[in-house]
Amino acid sequence: MSKDNDNDKDKDEGESSSTAIATNAALANVQSTERVKEFLAKAKDEFQVKYDKPSQNTAKFEDFECIRTIGKGSFGRVMLVKHISNGNFYAMKILEKQKVLNYRQIEHTLHEKRILQAISFPFIVNLDYHFKDSTYLYMVLEFIPGGNMFSYLRKVGRFSEQHTRFYAAQIVLTLEYLHYLGIIYRGLKPEDLLIDTDGYLKVADFGFAKKITDRTWTLCGMPEYLAPEIILSKGYNKAADWWALGILVYEMSAGYPPFFADQPIQIYEKIVSGKIRFPSHFSSDLKDLLRNLLQIDVKKRYGTLENGVDDIQIHRWFSATDWNAIYQRQVEAPFVPKIKEPGDASNFNEYEEEPRKKILKFNAAFN
Questions:
Q1: By C-alpha distance, which of 196, 73, 189 is closest to 137?
Q2: pLDDT in tens, 232-273
Q3: pLDDT for 295-320, tens place per residue?
Q4: Which of 70, 137, 271, 364 is most enclosed, with most CB atoms within 10 A?
């Protein structure tokens, strides 16, 4: 056989091998896509059953020992508690009914409890118990001891793109899950992203989450994270969450959000202008992804086009991301918080505690 024939044979074999690899990769991608579709369909069925028939009181205050406050909000506080029977630690969200009523947040609070008790996803906190009395509403969530992303980000300044990508991938999967269930999140921000013992994220606050079929009009969320269509009162849908993802990715990579000012009205003006400046250290791929997420025109925004979330997941910036490995929590986290022991709350800020008498009144409300 001639040398030319040998070369042709090697070339043919090489091309055949490349074709086979490409075919196998495409087949694996199709199979993976089908598995995702099957998972989401099953998850939606399970969610709908629990959402349509929400569980009632599943515990009582006397079941828990209060340890200390780990968070405060407009309507109440979050306390680290220990279940007296099983010894597990939890984050108990205690909301004052009167304050919820005064701030006209009844609907949001009911949505939060109803949604949390019906969903289940690796990157969302579990609602383990919930109950109420004449004065308070209680939601007992799994305790995530690593603290929140906001505190960690402020400590280190900014994340590398690899670090940002690790967190962003988890949020993309979480939003894909929620949107498939018909839920718009509306509350994305670093303060509500907790870091668990393995360095993975847990979305913690569902106060603005809502099940929708088309559009909604309520102005809610952190000013820096609001999509332009929310500000302009045009009515908005799940596309607003993809805008918020763009803001989060920018803030993680830069150390500050793309739109900020002293007053909310000034922030809103910058957002609707659509003018974005990128730091010099942003890669071209990152800037391209952000331009497509922070797209003023909802019809052109990534996540809402014909390919849906696929446009984000196959983007060049995510080219090295193994989405299944992220979901399975098999990727080594770039940062793992220091946890001394179960119930260690050292990664949370300290707050002034309620007077002991007021805490004891929580018990008395049941008697």
A1: 73
A2: 998 999 999 999 999 999 999 999 999 999 999 999 999 999
A3: 999 999 999 999 999 999 999 999 99
A4: 271
Tokens (6 digits) for 11: 């070339």
Dump pLDDT digits (tens) for 25-61. Answer: 444 454 566 778 889 999 999 999 999 999 888 999 9
Which amino acid is present at 188? L
What is the distance between the alpha carbons of residues 254 and 331, in angstroms, rounded to a whole number? Answer: 23
List the domains of the chain with CATH numbers. Answer: 61-145+341-364 (3.30.200.20), 149-327 (1.10.510.10)
SS3 34: helix
Q: ∠263-264-267 over CA atoms, to 5°?
A: 95
pLDDT of 22 higher than 60: no
DSSP letter string, 166-212: HHHHHHHHHHHHHHHTTEE-----GGGEEE-TTS-EEE---TT-EE-
CA torsion, ordered 218, 213, 93, 170, to nearest 10 deg: -110
- CA-angle at 73, arms to 157 and 190, nearest 5°: 25
Burial of 91 by CB count in 10 Å (0-12 exposed, 13-18 middle, 19+ buried)? Answer: buried
